[in-house]
Every structure is written in C-alpha cells, then in structure tokens.
Amino acid sequence: MSQSRADRRRSTRGGAAPPPKRDPMMPIYIGFAVILVVIFAVFGVSRFFGQRSSDQARAFDVNTPTPAPGATSKPIQLRDLQPIGKPTGFPVSNIRKGVLPDTATGGHGQDVDGIPCQSMEVGVVHIHAHLALFYHGEPVQIPAYVGMTANANGGCLYWLHTHGPDGIIHVEAGSVSNPNGGPFTLGNFFDIWGQPLNANQVGPFKGPVTVYLNGSTYSGDPASIPLRAHQIITLEVGTPVVPPPNYKLPPAD
Predict the structure, then answer these.
(1) Chain segment 105-119, per-residue pLDDT in tens
(2) Pairing mode, if any, of strands 156-158 and 148-149?
(3) Alpha-carbon gap, residue 187 to 204, rounded angstroms
(4) Which residue in 136, 114, 154 sits closest to 240, CA to CA?
(5) What is the value of pTM for the model shown?
C-alpha cells in the first residue's frame, strides 16, 4: 500500500516527531550582531577620517622639509612658555597691563583671512610650528597671546595663536584647510597679529629678509610658508645673517 503524503513527510522527519522549534531568542541575537557590525563600521569610518585629517594636517606642502635637519650643532630644547629672544619692538609691557599684542589692523574678534575667533579651542587639527625672528643678528621675542582677544563677553581665540613668548605657533583649528582651500600659512598668522610680513619687512623691522625653513634657505614668499607640524621657521632681518638655530619643540608638542 502506498504511503500518503502526510506519512511520507513524517517519515522524512524521522517518524512522528514534531518539526524542530526555532530558538525564540534568535531575532535578539541577530539584532545584537547587526548593532555590533554598525558600531565597528562607525568606529572604522571615524578612525579613517580622523587619520586622514591628521595626515593632511601634517602634509600641507610636500615641498617643504620637516622636521628640522639640524641647522646648528646643538639643538635648543624649547619649553612651553619659556621666553625666547629679546622683547624688542613688541608691546610686552602692554601685555603685562592686559593689552594683547594684536595691532589695530589685526584680529579683534572678526574673521581674518576667513579664520574665525571662537570662545574655546577646537581640535580637528592640533599641531605646533616654531617661529624665530632675528634683527641684525639678535633674537627678537615673538609675544605671547597673539591671536587672543579680550572683550566684555570673555574674548575669543583664533585658530592660529601663541600662548607664551616661546615662538611656538599653535594651530588648533576646526578644519584641515583654511576657508580659501589651502593650508594655514605664516601669512595667516601675521594677518591675525596685524603685522606686515614680506621680503623687506617683518613686523616693525625693516631690511632685507632672509628666510630659513627647517634649517634650509627658503627663497619663496615668507607669507606663503605652510604651518606644518614641527615646522621650524627662522626670519632674519638685516645683517649680519647668523646660522639659524635648530629648535626642538617640547616633547608633548
């Protein structure tokens, strides 16, 4: 006698045993797996873009060497807020009175070169470069608080600024590139400061300007020098032209 269709299905399942039940937790397990995959994907994407921003910030201009190859035999170890050079020609005495060094044409809260002044530091890009200035062979101090303003609302901080008279330029920016599409430059910093910078003048100091970039002679426009991580920039006005010091930024910078 031939088996009925139901008998054949029971035989295929191994007798009259009921079909296996599905684990009721399976949808939850699948949900957790999907969430984990999404978390790892988001983490991976964030890490990718974060690394890309860091790489771009350290590679504003591949034609400039970095770090400093050693302009002098013994590097000068910098320390945060340690004064470098003589405070000649800049309003350091006024700084002690609470007057910040940006000139009347510099940054006082308005956008400068499209760079904003904000109430707190931002860290999409956070790098440090060093600026040294010599006038007739003597080191001149870059003042503290360039790019900082004070007003009734508590003031603001430009993406390019100094903290101390150590010559360290802090780039703490909310974007990898400046609003004009290029890297942040030494010219941007001087525009925020409100001081002139060209082949014949640096701030109030006039005369032929010799530029060293990471210990090597730089023949281009000093205002176009990109501010890269650990960039060592030396501007010498007048004569004699002395060998550019090889500064070493603080270990944490």
Answers:
(1) 999 999 999 999 998
(2) antiparallel
(3) 15
(4) 136
(5) 0.72
